[in-house]
Write a structure and sequence with these properties.
Elements: E1 4-15, E2 18-24, E3 27-29, E4 33-37, H1 44-51, E5 59-64, E6 67-68, H2 74-80, E7 82-84, H3 97-109, H4 126-135, H5 151-164, E8 169-173, H6 181-194, E9 199-203, H7 207-213, E10 216-221, E11 224-229, H8 231-235, H9 238-248
Parallel strand pairs: 4-9, 4-10, 7-8, 8-9
Antiparallel strand pairs: 1-2, 1-3, 1-5, 5-6, 10-11
């Protein structure tokens, strides 16, 4: 029997009469890379915001490892082991990658706001920081201001800060958005690397990336689940093809 690390039941969200997400059932298997795709306006980011509790469902339920998290706060969900990234890179631009990861590592220690402690008290984190930066290919850029990094490198840094929280499940929102081919390839390989031993749910427009990484795909259209299956099944589904062609034509 499959073990679902994340499950939604009839998840819906209405905004002032507009039903953005309608009766969505998603089940993500433990240790799987699961992609959430669909044309623009399909409701993908709204589903992400519902799952991580940044917005409240109008109806339905969300379960993480069998625990009902429908009414929990975002911080509570993150502490349970489900951590997300955002479409826009969420790192501190004026700090170095080393300092960004150090802040992420401080949170589980409860020292993130202990400004009266000397900086040397954090030296014990240095090895772990460099280990995480090496994992995402940023060890040579550890002490360069983040604002100077290329966009793809900033996205890699965001993944490093997410990994610092030791998540059981990572939600990646458009990890390759706005990237050139070289950065797309680098981030694709990085996601494949960090997926080992973890569960990943990703929203991604680049279908080549989806085909390369995802073991299971859920297609949304107009807030509803249109199809679900492996890439080969999805790519041949007439309803999916029509939804994407329709979005391209207007």
């Amino acid at each position: 029997m499959a073990q679902w690390v994340l499950e939604t039941k009839k998840l819906s969200k209405e905004f002032r009469g507009f039903l953005a997400v309608s009766q969505v059932d998603i089940r993500v298997q433990k240790g799987c890379v699961h992609a959430l795709i669909g044309p623009n306006g399909a409701g993908k980011t709204t589903v992400f915001n519902l799952l991580t509790r940044f917005i409240t469902p109008s109806s339905g339920a969300i379960f993480f490892n069998g625990v009902d998290i429908t009414k929990k706060k975002p911080a509570e969900v993150a502490l349970m082991g489900m951590v997300r990234s955002f479409q826009i890179s969420a790192v501190f631009p004026n700090l170095t990658p080393f300092e960004n990861v150090r802040i992420a590592l401080q949170r589980p220690l409860g020292t993130a706001c202990h400004f009266w402690k000397p900086l040397s008290s954090l030296d014990t984190l240095s090895d772990k920081i460099m280990e995480l930066l090496e994992a995402v290919g940023l060890q040579q850029l550890a002490h360069r201001p983040t604002v100077e990094l290329a966009y793809g490198r900033k996205r890699a840094l965001e993944i490093a800060t997410t990994l610092a929280l030791e998540p059981e499940m990572m939600l990646l929102d458009e990890p390759t958005q706005g990237m050139g081919a070289e950065d797309v390839e680098r981030i694709t390989e990085l996601v494949r690397k960090v997926a080992a031993g973890r569960t990943i749910l990703m929203v991604e427009h680049n279908l080549k990336v989806v085909a390369s990484l995802a073991e299971r795909i859920t297609v949304l259209n107009r807030g509803k689940v249109l199809a679900e299956g492996h890439y080969e099944e999805i790519s041949r589904n007439p309803s999916v093809m029509e939804a994407y062609m329709g979005s391209e034509n207007g």
